[in-house]
Amino acid sequence: MNSEEGNHYLGIFFRYDNKRKIYKDKIISIINSTYNIFNWKRLSEKQIIAVWNMTYMV
Q1: Stretch (H or E) spanning 1
Q2: What is the reported pLDDT for 55?
Q3: pTM of the predicted model, to two decimals?
Q4: Residue 11 — pLDDT band, cuts 50, 70, 90?
Q5: How far is it, in rounded angstroms, from Cα 43 to Cα 32?
Q6: What are the CA-CA distances from residue 17 to residues 4, 5, 10, 11, 48 (Å)?
Q7: Are the C-beta atoms of 27 and 9 separated by less than 8 Å?
Q8: Is the dihedral angle over the CA atoms 42, 52, 29, 2 positive or is it negative?
Q9: 53, containing H or E segment
Q10: Measuring CA to CA, which residue among 55, 5, 17, 8 is closest to residue 35?
């Protein structure tokens, strides 16, 4: 349901007066922080499968 104040979807608050760049920057920052964590920490085989299944299902 659309609200006049905006809608919250997948961790991002969408408002009617926001520009596309705001959403693009937020998504890029989420991807970069996730990449930095995965680059720093070695994942086990089970963790890789779990991450793959979570991203593939969404």
Answers
A1: none
A2: 63
A3: 0.53
A4: low
A5: 17
A6: 10, 10, 19, 18, 38
A7: no
A8: negative
A9: helix 45-57
A10: 55
Give 2-10 contacts, CB < 8 A, sequence gap 24+.
none
Q: Tokens 């959403």 — which residue?
A: 23
Complete DSSP assignment for 2-44 = --SS-EEETTEEE-TT--HHHHHHHHHHHHHHHHHHHHHSPPP
Copy the structure tokens of residue 56: 């593939």
User: Which tokens belong to 34?
Assistant: 């996730």
Give ∠ CA 36-37-38 in degrees, rounded to 5.
Answer: 95
Token representation of residue 10: 């997948």
